[in-house]
Write a structure and sequence with these properties.
The protein has a single domain (3-198), classed as Rossmann fold (3-Layer(aba) Sandwich). With 205 residues, the protein is of the alpha/beta class. 37% of the residues lie in helices and 18% in strands.
Amino acid sequence: MSTFIDLLRHGETASKFRYCGSTNHPLTPFGWTQMWQAIENHPTQWQQIVTSPLARCADFARVIGLRYTIPVAYDEHIQEIHFGDWEDRSSTELMQTDADALVSFWQNPLNHPPPNGEHLLNFEARVLSAWYAIQQQFDGKKVLLVTHSGVIRIIIRHILQLSLERMLELEIKHASIMQIQIDSDQSSQAILISGLKSQSEHCSS
């Protein structure tokens, strides 16, 4: 028996073009519309919803859980990476105050995390820990995971064995959805992707 996990990124928030990791911005009205459009052909299939507790994910997960009588679990391990002192600031602002650190981060995020931010390897470890736990807990079920672009990148990197550089080139669009099929014996994982393309982008939300 296979497990199916749909990865859904949240829709648009008011924090566009800002480093919004742990900052708790809600969806805009257009962001809500994006989310509804993304799932219009899916909701009755899911047996479980797992969501980041941040409002831009959890608010929507809660509503569809109630509407379609699907249980909802909140998992802080699938929150976005924390950008430390750069939270809720734009690259334009940071170029005025922290240009050297920002350029170093763009060039080598593994060795130059944001000041007081979460290290990329620690972020990857917590995301993959949650990913395996979700597979184990909901084995054989159809699950919706409502989360963030950084989390989705980590999961795709793990499944496809991408380099860090290749992972950072992935653009995960707002409200994009992709399905992961996992065989019960873990021998293979298939990924069906909608809304994923390659683009140089370092800011997650």
